[in-house]
User: What shape does this take?
Amino acid sequence: MSSSTDLGRPDAAPGTLAQTPDGRPVSDRGDTVCVIGAGASGLTAVKNLAEHGFGVDCYERETGVGGAWNWRHDRSPVYASTHLISSRPFTQFPDFPMPDDWPDYPHHSQLLSYFERYADHFDLRRHIWFGTEVVRVEPVEGDRWDVTTRSTGGYGPERTSRYAAVVVANGHNWSPKLPRYEGLEGFRGEVMHASSYKDPAQLRGKRVLVVGAGNTGCDIAVEAAQQASRCWHSTRRGYWYAPKYVLGRPADQVNDSLLALRVPLRVRQWLYHWTLRLTVGDLTRFGLPKPDHRVYETHPIANSQLVYYVGHGEISPVPELARFHDRSVELTDGREIDPELVIFATGYLPRFEFLEAKVLGDDEGVGRPRLWLNEFTAGHPTLAVVGLVQPDSGVFTISHWQSVLFARLLRLRATRPDRAAAFAKKVAAGVGERYSGAVKDSTRHWFEVGHADYLRAVQRALDELEGGR
Amino acid sequence: MSIERVRIVRAREWARPERPARREVLSAVPQLEEGRPPLLFVPGFGHGAWAFAEHWLEHAASRGFPAYALSLRGHGGSEPAPGATLRSYAHDVTQVAAGLPRRAVLVGHGAGARVVTHALARYPARAAVLVAPVLGGWGTLGAALRRNPGGTLPAVFGGGLRLSRRQLFSRELPDAEARRYAARLGRAGRRAQWQLLTGREPEPAVGRPPVLVLGSPDDRVVPAAALTRAARRYASAPLLFPGMGHDLMLDARWREPIDAILDWLEKDPAPAAG
Assistant: This one.
């Protein structure tokens, strides 16, 4: 195991035995692990690898930590009113609690301060190379990796360093997914993706159409209901809009009370439907379509206000868009509406532009990695993807345990190669496994996991790895 | 040390987060930041942050260690909490520890050491120090009944545990001072007291903190054998300060144990195996 005190600049390392194909030297970083990204998942990977005794180099294209949660970052999707969707206990790192006097659903600026404190508390910044983006990550012999970096924006020369392992934590909510519509180019109104929506002032006094019923789409629709002169909300299907509070407590905490009792999914679905009937009741009377699925079969939407504003007539639910005209939008039911501003809250797609698609098991090149535990790829035992999950709860808890699992796996590669080999077999056999009930098939649900199912699977993997104690 | 089994799924804890409570934190920080880890002192049952503010905080700060002491809920200047459990206390510790600027060293005294062992499972401390640790179990009750039947019996039946000043301090401490300290003692929550006897063993520590155990062979709360047992749990032997009472931080020779702790920390103890 390497010492974590080896913190020289990557290019100052003495070993320059190998060369890149274009003749530049490769500096050998020994047993050091490379972490790509210093957002929530990257930070916890750095912290846990260092805690397990590894040297860590983390590359971050921005100049601060926090990734998506740092509103200063180009790729940050947060808007002024972004709050957590899952409540604190599900969202914090399990070994670094958020302050208990914070609200149940903290604001994004609190999240950023939480990550900054995490980085300072565990002294993580000394591992991070800010303003450095990763250009290429290539496997080389001995399950090691050549990582090529350069200054963000492409300035300066490229540098290649060789690492014992790589953690990919580049996030998956920064590359907007935009649907195609007939006539969209000719539309005279303003069109934007939710990633560029920052502030309710952008909506004030306008006729706004919000497309998409993810948590972002619902948030923006609610803000449009308050600020815009008119708000249409277009959804592909009917959804279950869960309130953030039920029975006097955050809804996810109530749900987990049932999970703790191991109440089966069917019963939980029934209870859920029953609770909704007691509160908001039948949504079809507002013109919302009836959900074509049972609750828990799509990514949960936690928004207490959407139904409220629909009930007050401030949001007009409309079906899917058919095509765009010059100054209007035609809906699939034949109606035409005339928004000035169309906001596509249609989500994001993962992108790993520095990795060959094959490495992550994406043989067809559709952009969907095929992984086990959403983390490990077959044939590359020293590569892990952290944070590539869409849980019905917070991501950071999950990223933490993914990092712990990977750190322990790396440690066992040195001390108990037999166990590491058995783990690799399980990865190969389990690629593509799902950790949720049946979900609707769409890119939205590529990485959907039920947090309890998923974390139990991680627990099993960890126990087996460590000898089934 | 055997391989730790970590617990990942905590549905019950997530579903029922601990209630927030106003917590008293006293501190003394060195004038010059020297990059040393902050110390967080956790008092035992009945004690508050004041017990460390008396001598140890200032002394640690004078040797370059930022020092903090908290009062568990229901103690000292913290919010009253009659229904507190060991989990609430451990929550108080992790909350304050995570709020410190850097990874902290947790120093638990008496039953506060038990609270620290629970907190260690939820917070990767830089190191841990267990001072005259009362780690609980039925043996603790036996010892307490033998040494202090009058103060202990009511606790068995749901009353508060009373400690006598002769248990807590050596005869070297002037009587007036001993009386003054004893008068400041409060009571822990009833449920927490019971959990000290019947509660579950602490889960394994996260982040492999090195652990130091120290105490006094003449402690009339924690028998010497219990000290040895506690230290063995962390694969070491206890540091002993003969002639002192249970409250090492208040007794006449308070300087010796805190110096020993700081000396140990200055040597930058390596992470535990595992």
